[in-house]
Amino acid sequence: MVNLKIDGQKISVPAGTTILEAAEKVGIKIPHLCYLKDINEIAACRVCLVEKVGMEKLVTACNTEVEEGVEILTNSPRVREVRRINVELILSDHDCKCVQCVKSGNCTLQRISNDLGIIEQPYKNIHEVNRWDFDLPIIREASKCVKCLRCVQICDKIQGLNIWDITGSGYRASVGVGNNKKITNADCALCGQCITHCPVGALRERDDIGLLRDALADPDKITMVQIAPAIRTAWAEGIDISKTEATTGKLVSALRRIGFDYIFDTTYTADLTIMEEGSEFIERFTHKEDYSWPMFTSCCPGWVRFVKTQYPDYVKNLSTAKSPQQMFGAMAKTFIAQKLGIDADKIFSVSIMPCLSKKYEHNVDQVDDAGHGKDVDLVLTTRELDRLIRADNIQPDDLKEESFDPIFGEGSGAGVIFGATGGVMEAALRSAYFLITGENPEPDSFKSVRGMKGWKEATFEIKGLQVRVAVASGLGNTRRLMEAIKKGEVQYDFVEIMACPGGCVGGGGQPVHDGCEYASPRGEILYGLDKFSGLRFSHENTAVQMTYDEFLEKPNSHRAHELLHTDLEN
Ligand code: HC1
Ligand code: SF4
């Protein structure tokens, strides 16, 4: 153990601990901007400077290890002065239009600057004013970039994609798309992890709220919204409502106040996806010789973009089942319109997703099969939903428990856990077991695929058949798994991949809590909802059963293929 003093407090910590971590152990918070544990410990921002008594030079707390007998001052006059100058220098290169910034109120630089009482800008040196605005859901505003390099590191170390890099040199050094590429021709998966780890507003999603406002105000449009499984765990994080108060019923209430005509649940089509994908798996499993192996899930468009650019030989291994978002869109403008007795041409179909790449997915032409324009007209993120709720001045106390509109708001616990890594696999196995044996398994039989581990594997026996499965989340883990498959080091039958670490609960469109990962607690909430759900099997969802009885006939029927499957090889 190493003994030292921090701000007068004696402390003993293991060798190798950084000053920042040691200070946190005794409740002393050292401000920092660029630091991300184990990912970005490069001290680029120099906000975490502290004084080692007796040493002339200040040291950075995030990457300096403790030493025996030293005394550290985290808030001495010298530290305060230099820290302040460093933040003023960062601000000199930052477009400080806070009131017009999407991160206002949730910006680490704004908070640090306010905490230091900086109200003047003594240095002004903005040289980067370019802002790109391609037709992609990701937007970068270089004039806001503080060169913390978090985006570079997240993309490289966690997502294994290296889209971002340092560009230029000297005082012109900046962050941009590497290899002299534009974002439109880089291999970006659009997972949005760079956005959720940007401490300022230099990276953000395209804001599509205006398009929703137009639709809500148009008397000729019928607005229909679906909410993704992972929204229910995170929607309240951006507004003033506690976790325990933030029920799905209150979210439905907020959506009614916003003005949607019909409010449904993507979980209905998550269950439909299980019926289609589960049946497809059984068909492939029993005719292995006709297919490329293993079969991969295809509901995550970040993963689909990744496999297309990084492992194109494996595109044919993807399930042809559309994602629940797109299945909902296809059903909205066909069967749902028919059941509700409304004109499909008037439907404006909106989805609220924890995801950036869903904004891309709904725009891909080959997913439109209902014959009434886009199957999904608009995709908003959880963050946009929170902005809508705040903009409409919807008060949490006024929200009551309300139900989804019947009947397409019905979803099983199996559909709900889609939002967490391993959830699609577990839901699929619950129904595959039923489809193979004619009996339900114990609902938690496949729970060994739960948890935040980046690459999990298991073998299950169903009626004498060994089914080898793997689950990965995060594209860096995915690359490791794909390399192992390619080299023949591992053999699986069915593989679930989600681009974001932890699955959609950790999605690139979710509320941001700087430096904290929320995927795990959000996932726990989904598993809790499943556990206490009266309906834990996709095949028991009565809305799904009715959909087959009255419209699709059976899973993988001709009509189901027309509407619910797509050829991802194009
Ligand atoms: Fe997801 Fe899915 S789980 S992909 O993360 O299959 O976005 O929540 O809606 O489509 O259901 C996202 C979440 C979501 C789809 C489902
Ligand atoms: Fe979107 Fe979920 Fe995939 Fe992330 S894991 S890219 S949130 S679908």
TrEMBL record:
Cofactors (names): [4Fe-4S] cluster; [2Fe-2S] cluster
InterPro entries, sorted: 2Fe-2S_ferredoxin-like_sf, 2Fe-2S_ferredoxin-type, 4Fe4S_Fe-S-bd, 4Fe4S_Fe_S_CS, Cytosolic_Fe-S_CAF, Fe_hydrogenase, Fe_hydrogenase_lsu_C, Fe_hydrogenase_ssu
Main location: membrane
Top-rank lineage group of the source organism: Bacteria
Record carries keyword Repeat: yes
Coiled-coil region: none
SMART domains recorded: Fe_hyd_SSU, NADH-G_4Fe-4S_3
Location of the 4Fe-4S ferredoxin-type domain: 135-166, 179-208
GO molecular function: 2 iron, 2 sulfur cluster binding; 4 iron, 4 sulfur cluster binding; ferredoxin hydrogenase activity; iron ion binding; NADH dehydrogenase (ubiquinone) activity
Domain 4Fe-4S His(Cys)3-ligated-type: 78-117
Subcellular location: Membrane
UniProt keyword annotations, A-Z: 2Fe-2S, 4Fe-4S, Iron, Iron-sulfur, Membrane, Metal-binding, NAD, Repeat, Translocase
Keyword match Phosphoprotein: no
Domain 2Fe-2S ferredoxin-type: 1-78
Segments passing through the bilayer: none
GO biological process: ATP synthesis coupled electron transport
GO cellular component entries: membrane
Homology family: Belongs to the complex I 75 kDa subunit family.
Protein name: Hydrogenase
Species name: Emergencia timonensis
Classification of source organism: Bacteria, Bacillati, Bacillota, Clostridia, Peptostreptococcales
